[in-house]
Amino acid sequence: MPPETDSSRRRRITAPKSPAMASSCNLTIWCFLLAFVCPVPSESAAAVPAVNRTRHEWITAHLKRVNKPAVKMIKSPDGDVIDCVPSHLQPAFDHPKLRGQKPLDPPERPRGHNRSSAANDVNLQAWAISGESCPEGTVPIRRTTPGDILRASSLRLFGRKPAGGRLRRDSTSSGHEHAVGYAMGERYYGAKASLSVWEPRVTIRSEFSLSQIWVISGSFGNDLNTIEAGWQVSPQLYGDGRPRFFTYWTTDAYQETGCYNLLCSGFVQTNNKIAIGAAISPTSALNGGQFDIDLLVWKDPKRGHWWLEFGSGLLVGYWPAFLFSHLAEHANMVQFGGEIVNTQSSGFHTSTQMGSGHFAEEGFRRAAYFRNLQLVDWDNSLIPLANLRLLADHPNCYSIQGGVNRVWGNYFYYGGPGRNVRCP
Question: What is the pTM of this model?
Answer without folding.
Answer: 0.87
